[in-house]
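Practice problem 4.
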């Protein structure tokens, strides 16, 4: 057992930390207010290799491991969780999905641009009536010989307005239930494919979230991913890795809020001393640090499982369940330590508290993680 990071990991972490401090921190409050995230910043993340962290360099990626991925995710999330969710979706859901299950032609055509940050991707599973219960897909893809015709609605899609490539999950044969589901690559601008208005959200407001409409959208057969009927398995396998990214995002939000709270507690005075000298505050800091370290262990273990080629369905679910709980609880504590200043935007922790909530909802709610974990536990 070795808990230390390699020199390369430390270099990667420091590069992400430096980028977050110099490029993401300026304007993060304004971006949250305006619900925007400039394309130039996405391009800069692409130039640093953050958009295709684990992708093979022959497809334009950085060829790094999952430990590097979570280190980068944590550092970006400490400052701006809106930036990190774009990175997470593009890496774990879109690039991973295409690299692992796509054809060579699909990789050449789409993955190389996605991994290098030249284009950006979205993962479209959720629907107004099919969230946790993803088998209840209403979106259909009818086989017309050399192409499919897609009809339906997808909602809550991250990167929904700014993507070039959309991986869309749809029902091709309702009688076959989850075995009648397929995944397709849909390009922006395909006739009949419309992007709805941006959602006005509680948190991760810089990240754009949209409803998408598909009205008789023709998709060539070569854009189906995997064998006929592979779509549900594709979504579940991909989301399992996605949860490692979101767990690392939650860890980063918690760690970012903790660092601010610690600093504040050493500066702010009450009753003649810095507030960290009051045991009530010192014990909060002790609990925060311990909880965050415990979350970090679970996140690292899930990433390590992925790197070792182990099954990571359970470890990623546990990491996401726990890290998201820690993020929610510890950002509330960070606001408390800031007192009144915690309640205003200038001090960042109120944004972090708002951002933390989504980590308990997307890529499978906490209740769904418990279903995954309990099934694994009972199966043994
Ligand atoms: C900001 C944001 C970004 C998102 N990005 C994407 C994206 O890029 N792509 C995408 O496809 N989706 C995305 N989603 C959708 C997200 O994954 C879903 O919201 C989530 O899976 C929950 O689905 P739902 O909202 O339909 O809630 P529901 O499934 O209706 O759940 C409502 C409540 O019931 C609980 N529940 C449901 N079933 C069970 C059960 N069997 N046992 C116990 N409790 C249960 C849930 O845990 C939850 O508390 C995003 C959502 C948001 C808010």
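Answer key:
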């Amino acid at each position: 057992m070795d808990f230390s990071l390699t020199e390369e990991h430390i270099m990667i972490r420091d590069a992400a930390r430096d980028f977050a401090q110099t490029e993401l921190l300026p304007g993060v409050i304004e971006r949250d207010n305006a619900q925007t995230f400039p394309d130039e910043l996405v391009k800069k993340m692409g130039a640093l290799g953050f958009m295709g962290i684990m992708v093979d360099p022959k497809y334009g990626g950085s060829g790094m491991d999952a430990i590097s991925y979570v280190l980068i995710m944590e550092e970006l999330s400490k400052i701006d969780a809106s930036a990190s969710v774009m990175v997470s979706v593009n890496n774990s859901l879109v690039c991973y999905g295409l690299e692992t299950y796509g054809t060579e032609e699909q990789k050449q055509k789409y993955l190389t641009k996605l991994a290098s940050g030249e284009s950006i991707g979205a993962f479209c599973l959720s629907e107004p009536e099919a969230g946790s219960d993803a088998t209840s897909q209403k979106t259909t893809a009818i086989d017309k010989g050399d192409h499919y015709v897609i009809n339906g609605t997808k909602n809550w899609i991250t990167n929904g307005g700014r993507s070039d490539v959309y991986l869309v999950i749809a029902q091709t044969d309702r009688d076959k239930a989850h075995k009648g589901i397929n995944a397709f690559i849909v390009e922006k601008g395909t006739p009949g494919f419309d992007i709805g208005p941006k959602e006005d959200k509680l948190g991760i407001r810089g990240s754009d979230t949209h409803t998408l409409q598909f009205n008789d959208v023709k998709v060539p057969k070569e854009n189906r991913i995997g064998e006929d009927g592979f779509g549900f398995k594709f979504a579940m396998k991909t989301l399992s890795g996605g949860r490692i990214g979101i767990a690392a995002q939650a860890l980063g939000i918690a760690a970012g809020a903790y660092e601010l709270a610690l600093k504040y507690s050493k500066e702010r005075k009450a009753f003649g001393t810095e507030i960290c000298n009051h045991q009530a505050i010192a014990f909060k800091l002790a609990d925060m640090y311990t909880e965050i370290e415990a979350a970090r262990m679970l996140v690292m273990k899930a990433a390590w499982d992925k790197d070792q080629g182990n099954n990571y369905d359970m470890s990623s679910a546990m990491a996401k369940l726990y890290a998201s709980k820690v993020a929610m609880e510890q950002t509330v504590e960070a606001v408390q330590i800031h007192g009144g200043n915690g309640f205003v935007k200038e001090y960042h922790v109120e944004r972090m508290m708002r951002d933390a909530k989504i980590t308990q909802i997307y890529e499978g709610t906490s209740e769904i993680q418990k279903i995954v974990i309990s099934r694994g536990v009972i199966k043994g």
